[in-house]
Amino acid sequence: MLTSAKVRIVFAAMLAFGLLLTAALSGCSGLAVGDRPAQTPPAPDGEYDPAVWGEQYPEVYATWLATAEPRPADKSKYKRGFDGAQMYDKLSEYPFMPLLFKGWGFGIDYQEPRGHHYMIIDQNEADPSRVKSGGACLTCKSPYAEDLNTEDKEAFFGATYDEALGMLPEEHRKLGASCIDCHDNETMELSTRRWTVDAALTEIGLEPDDLSTQQQRLMVCGQCHCTYSVMKEEGVALDVDFPWEGSEWGAITVENVIDRLLEDPARTEWTQEVTDLELAFIRHPDVEFYSAGSPHMKVGMACNDCHMPDIRVNNETISDHNVMSPLKTDMTTCKRCHYDSAEELKAKVLAVQDANAAMLINAGYQTATAAKLIEMTNESIDPSAVDIKPTYDEALAHYKQAFYRVVWMGAENSLGFHNPAEGQRILKDAQAEADAATQLLRDLLTDSGVEVPAEVPLELDKYLEGRGEHEKGFIQTHYLGDPSGQALKSWPLSLGALLQ
Ligand code: HEC
Ligand code: HEC
Ligand code: HEC
Ligand code: HEC
Fold this sequence. Notes:
- By secondary structure, the protein is mainly α.
- Helices cover 46% and strands 5% of the residues.
- It has 21 helices and six strands.
- It has helices at residues 4-25, 50-54, 58-65, 90-93, 96-101, 119-125, 145-158, 161-166, 179-182, 195-203, 213-222, 254-263, 286-291, 295-298, 303-307, 342-380, 389-411, 420-447, 460-464, 486-490, 492-499, and strands spanning 229-233, 236-241, 270-272, 277-279, 310-313, 316-319.
- A two-stranded antiparallel sheet has the order 1-2. The chain has a two-stranded antiparallel ribbon with strand order 3-4. Strands 5-6 form a two-stranded antiparallel ribbon.
- The protein is globular and about 80 Å long.
- Mean pLDDT is 92; it is low at 1-38.
- One heme C (HEC) binds at residues 71, 81-82, 113-116, 118-119, 122, 140-141, 177, 181-182, 220-221, 223-225, 303-304, 307, 323-325.
């Protein structure tokens, strides 16, 4: 039965979309450019400098510049990147992550995201282990990546990170997402600017130049807010590729992506130290997770509907290009369709996030436990022995399924809100896979005469402390506890010791 609140929501949404549709049909090519009359192209071909574009759109330009500003503190529980000008250490927030990611850069230095202004600056400031893939690292960070790739792909991908930065004009070596990344310079229509996106869209059967309005709006953000592999051959980076093959629009699922990661050795990027397994990785799958049937996706919404509020400046309505968490703009975008108060809306977001965080954190420690059991097995028995190998391999297969799901849900940026039911589904599966691996490994070890303690010691401090060149350590004030309290009950020795 539809509650009256729901009917109001649906009605308001239809109204909002009716208006959008009218705008789209009234001859401005799907992009509302405020009340401005048609103008000369905002920027000449190949003009990257947002200041030049800004000459025609000074109000928008000012909001774009504001992505450099600190975010208001105490508005968001889970996404605190740059709140009060502080950066947040994701590995201290979720201490199972440094254990799982030990073996490469993500286990050393992994921060919560902050404003678009910082995307290259943050790479420069990160531990050097995070930019080992060289030129590939600029793919979704610099508007110049598209040209460097077209001009000389081999040189771009063969370059170290510093060499690749040196290929950019000096004045733009810190320039992140710019007008030209998202807009056509002649028409101002939304457009993407990456060969990776065109390849991925083609793989799922779409025509990159013929997208629906919703697809186009999602993909301007999704060109970077997506997962990808740095394709490697014998350790050398060759390309950046989204593991989307075999999926379809609206169903780029974790299962399909994991299949691609498992079947293509070129997607193997690192060796997990605890288990000695060669693995792929999953980065911020925001567009994948959101578009896989979320309630807001189904009603035609895109990222900017929530992340770029309409604001009035100089009697003109523009989209706020200072993209950030809707919690930090007091839910103004939501209120266009929802009649709840800001407090009610925030409470709804938090309810989803708390449930998701509890599952993520528990799945994380379950997977970390399985990893430590793999380590114990490798150290105490010979996993290649004929009577051991089949069970061991089966355990590893379950483990990888759990691991990739935990990485997926730990890397999507909304703590489950973008697609609540999908998040619950994925994390339930992660827990089941981790438990299956754990049970098989426990049996294997016990049958071989190895004693396995009830709580497998996770040695969390060993992975958290002394990370990388900057010797990073656990920051307790960044730690995010399991809101259900279950994690502390299940891993009292490991987590208790850490939190003392
Ligand atoms: C060129 C790549 C790129 C594009 C395009 C892009 N983003 Fe981002 N976005 C990033 C990166 C990288 C970060 C993290 C930057 C950092 O922490 O240094 C980020 C951070 C964010 C944040 C966190 C900001 C904060 O202050 O906390 C939000 C929200 C966000 N993006 C939303 C969007 C939306 C919505 C779109 C589309 C309108 C979009 N992004 C397009 C790369 C991109
Ligand atoms: C229905 C509204 C809605 C839509 C649509 C939406 N988001 Fe979000 N997004 C949120 C909320 C709510 C959060 C949680 C913010 C928080 O916890 O502070 C969030 C969080 C994020 C964050 C982390 C922000 C931060 O401060 O670290 C990023 C990045 C992001 N979204 C990107 C996207 C992208 C990309 C899309 C489109 C593929 C998208 N969002 C679509 C509502 C939305
Ligand atoms: C990360 C992607 C992204 C970047 C970077 C970006 N825009 Fe936009 N822009 C958007 C989106 C999304 C919209 C909303 C389009 C819609 O409503 O469908 C938009 C809308 C606009 C509009 C239409 C009026 C409005 O405000 O809604 C103008 C003008 C504009 N942008 C100018 C600029 C300028 C100038 C820059 C650089 C200083 C810039 N944009 C950078 C994504 C971006
Ligand atoms: C363009 C209109 C629109 C915008 C903007 C929008 N929503 Fe929604 N929202 C909807 C519609 C339509 C539904 C689906 C209603 C249904 O199926 O019951 C929905 C469903 C929801 C639900 C699940 C149903 C419920 O009420 O518990 C939540 C929670 C929610 N939205 C929160 C938000 C938040 C938070 C924001 C802003 C960050 C937001 N929405 C922005 C239209 C919108």
